[in-house]
Amino acid sequence: MKKPNFIIAGFPKCGTTSLYHYLSEHPEVYMPSQKELHFFSNNILSKLKNGPRDKVVKKTQISTSEKYLNFYKNVKDQSAIGDASPSYINYPEALLKIKNYLNDPKLIIVLRDPINRAYSNYQHLKREQRESLSFIEALKNEEERKRLKYSDFWYYKFNSTYSYKIEQAQKIFSHVLILTLEELSAKPDETMKKVYKYLDVETNFRMKNPSNRFNIGGAYKSNYFTKLIFQPSTFKNKIKKIIRPNSGTKILLMKLSNLFKSDSEKIDDESVRYLKDFFRDDVNKLKSMKIDISKWRKY
């Protein structure tokens, strides 16, 4: 049985879904039918389930080796075999499991301006009609949500704190590639060529449509259709087991949901000031690590 030899480890809301779909097009790359298996972090995530509809989301996460390896039973002659689960980067113990179980696979980490990432995370839960607080209230309520054992997807600041987690990944793995959503969005072909080279697959492969974006954020009108599309449910989980959503399905659903898109509110000034203070040291650490954050706001 073949196992993954590269991992898209995170961060959440940083373009990992687009990267997953882009790589799925390459004939030398195998990506499982389900993104976000979360197998190596399941022992941690399974205990974080007390936020609204968290328990429904947890049902899609993979808890056993048998179930995990079943996603790779159809690997043929692809040389690059992946797992895209953006929770992994947040937990060094999960990274150690990955190294031991998969024999030191290549790691890909994707970053994003931390304030934009946090707000996109917030908007995601608003779209799902799960988040009821204002952005600044949710930020200041994060420690309480941790205490109550909400899913870590509710931890907006935690998921935007990068430097220590990257340092741990670089200590654990022999090969780590760091990208930013900003470069993937601005230069998708050039960025993907870098990824192909890193994975040692044909670099001249061209994506069908590099302008396609997946899991695009923003605000949507609240109605039956958007609730059906965005909100986690047992019904959706069952449908996904029968009809695995591919890139074409994702694009179609995005086009349909765009009919109900509304003007997205900008991040309020209080939240920006609060988060600039919170992230400043972390961003400065990234600079010292020679990570290109030139497209981010000034901290």
What portion of the residues fall into strands of 2 or more residues? 5-15%
Number of helices: 15
List unreliable stretches of 5+ residues.
none
Looking at the structure, what is the overall shape?
globular
Largest sheet: 5 strands, parallel
> What proportion of the residues is helical, as a percent range?
40-55%
Fold blueprint:
Elements: E1 6-10, H1 16-24, E2 29-30, H2 42-45, H3 54-58, H4 65-70, E3 80-84, H5 92-102, E4 106-111, H6 114-127, H7 135-140, H8 142-147, H9 163-172, E5 176-180, H10 181-186, H11 188-199, E6 219-220, H12 224-230, H13 234-242, H14 247-257, E7 261-262, H15 269-288
Parallel strand pairs: 1-3, 1-4, 2-3, 4-5
Antiparallel strand pairs: 6-7
Q: Would you kindly provide a brief summary of this structure?
A:
With 299 residues, the protein is of the alpha/beta class. The chain is 45% helix and 9% strand.
Structure characteristics:
299 residues, alpha/beta, 5-stranded parallel β-sheet, two-stranded antiparallel sheet, 15 helices, 45% helix, 9% strand
Explain how this protein is built:
This protein has helices at residues 16-24, 42-45, 54-58, 65-70, 92-102, 114-127, 135-140, 142-147, 163-172, 181-186, 188-199, 224-230, 234-242, 247-257, 269-288, and strands at residues 6-10, 29-30, 80-84, 106-111, 176-180, 219-220, 261-262. It is built from 15 helices and seven strands. It is of the alpha/beta class and 299 residues long. The model has no long low-confidence stretch (mean pLDDT 91). It is 45% helix and 9% strand. It starts with 5 loop residues before the first strand and ends in an 11-residue tail after the last helix. The strands form two sheets. A five-stranded parallel beta sheet has the order 2-3-1-4-5, with helices on both faces.
